[in-house]
Amino acid sequence: MRKWIVGFLALLIIAAYVINSSSSALRVETALVERRDLIITVQEQGRTRARLPYTVTAPVNAYMQRTALVEGHRVDQGQALALLSLLAEDDRAEASYRASLQAAEARRRVAEASLTEAESALTRSRNEAERRERLFLDRLIGSEEVELYRQAVQVAESRQQSARSSLAAAQADIDGARARLMGRGENSESEGNLTLTAPVSGTVLSVYERGDRAVAAGTALFEISDGDALELVVDLLTQDAVRVSAGDEILISGWGRNDTLRGVVDYVEPQAFTKFSALGVEEQRVNVVGSLIQNHPALGAGYRIEAAIVVAQHEQTLTVPTSALFRRNEQWHVFVVQDGRASLRAVQIGDRNREHAQVLDGAQPGDMVILFPSDLVVEGVEVSSSES
Predict the structure, then answer these.
(1) Per the structure, how many domains does the chain have?
(2) Degrees, nearest 5: CA angle 265-271-273
(3) 3-class SS at 237?
(4) Residue 100: how many CB atoms within 10 A of its CB?
């Protein structure tokens, strides 16, 4: 009899435990659906590079004397970079120098033609952009077409600058070839010597040759930035790049300091390229080129950066945490806490970033949604919430 009483009491204890366990509410973490400013960005690693750097080459075959220049030195336009000692001439060498002069003059003519073409293209692009601006003001075309022609103007301006640089380089080659042929020139210190000077003021980015040896004509010796101007290069997946337009803001971080620098998108290159990811997946990417609005003296060419390109902004829009969203039946859903119980609700979302998503339909301000809902969260289950 005693054993039956003990067993009966044990069963009562187990039943009470089961009843209490089944009636205990499920602990969940919740957050509010509320209005906030929502910024949508496309994020990717990028790098800085010098804008239109100059490469200084040896104009003639010569013996380059030792130079004291090192990477990072500041130089002014016209400052001496290196001294070249001209090699002994003979009839064959003189003929070669004359051919070099003719080739340099031909390159100048090509550069002049390219510059004329670039200037004509720029004028045409500006005229087309102005016409599209008027059509846009008359509401005959959309803003996307206007942005396209604005970008075309920026590309044409870059090509004009490149053509001007090519013309300057060709002229420098002509001057060097003439100096070598004559045995002296405006930059000569003495008979048989030629002084190379900086074409622009800036920083020495690379020293390819330090001297004390013979160098052939056309050998790259130095690379100099044009006034230390930097630009940003961010390679994006093509499906992300189509959302980027000229004029979009760039937020730059991860470059070594806590400051967040600001930049702006200049243009998206028209030609994409194939790149393999770290996992070996083939990707189509395209370079987005921008310029810095805020520069920092510690930031140089070739530095790694983290770029966040702002592609959309919504002021005081209704948002829900992305951690509350999940897919079911090819539609987004959330669990809303109503009267202490979980209620499944379908929602329609718009733009989203890593933390929040824009709610277009299905939720109201003040709704309490469950974050990271587990398999235990089902329709009607009693929950005990702790707001995040």
Answers:
(1) 4
(2) 105
(3) strand
(4) 22
Beta strands 383-387 and 26-32: pairing type?
Answer: parallel
- For residue 15, being part of any structural domain is answered with no
Interior CA angle at 25 toward 24 and 28, to 5°?
A: 145
Is 2 within the bounds of a domain?
no
For residue 62, being part of any structural domain is answered with yes
Helix (H, G, I), strand (E, B) or coil at 381: coil
User: What's the mean pLDDT when you consider all of the chain?
Assistant: 83
Domain containing residue 305: 40-49+228-314
In sequence order, what DSSP letters do the residues of 16-34 get, joined into one string?
A: HHHHHHHHSPEEEEEEE-E
pLDDT at 188: 41
pTM score, whole prediction: 0.55
Looking up residue 200, the CATH number of its domain turns out to be 2.40.50.100
The answer to whether residues 198 and 76 belong to one domain is yes
Helix/strand/coil (H, E, C) string of 92-125?
HHHHHHHHHHHHHHHHHHHHHHHHHHHHHHHHHH
Helices within 190-321 (DSSP H only): 238-241
Higher pLDDT, 134 or 58: 58
Is 216 found in the same domain as 342?
no
Q: What is the amino acid identity at position 83?
A: L
Separation between Cα atoms, residue 36 and residue 252, nearest integer Å: 23
d(CA 311, CA 249): 8
Residue 294 has phi, psi (to 5 degrees) of -110, 120
Neighbours of 74 (CB within 10 A): 13
